[in-house]
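Section 4.2 – Deliverable D4.2 (structural model, holo form)

The reporting period included a commitment to supply a predicted holo structure for the target in complex with zinc ion. Inputs used:
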Amino acid sequence: MALTAAPRHQPDMTARYDNQDGRIRGRKLQERRLRLWAQAKGCCASCGTLTTFPDGFQLDHKVPLFKAGPDTDANCQVLCVTVKGRVGCHDRKTADDMGQKLQVAIGDDGFPI
Ligand SMILES: [Zn+2]
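Output (structure tokens):
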């Protein structure tokens, strides 16, 4: 009986990089981000906070992809991100979409942030 090495686990990179789910990626996604951010004049669609490009916002799908929402400009909106001490609208909406509650962050003093 010959000993053979067990096959090493190979991550399925095609699942990560393919575009079979119809979701845009790469340069087209970055173009969409800039276009929609400019249309929104940089403001969060939920709270109106002025966001910065490219790190101060995230594109959100109004109807989430997992609820069969389309990956189109019309279904996307600019939402602010979580920054230190302040929960962003995108995290709040995502938790809401998933039927979850956000955990309250507790500061060093033992009080909610
Ligand atoms: Zn916001």
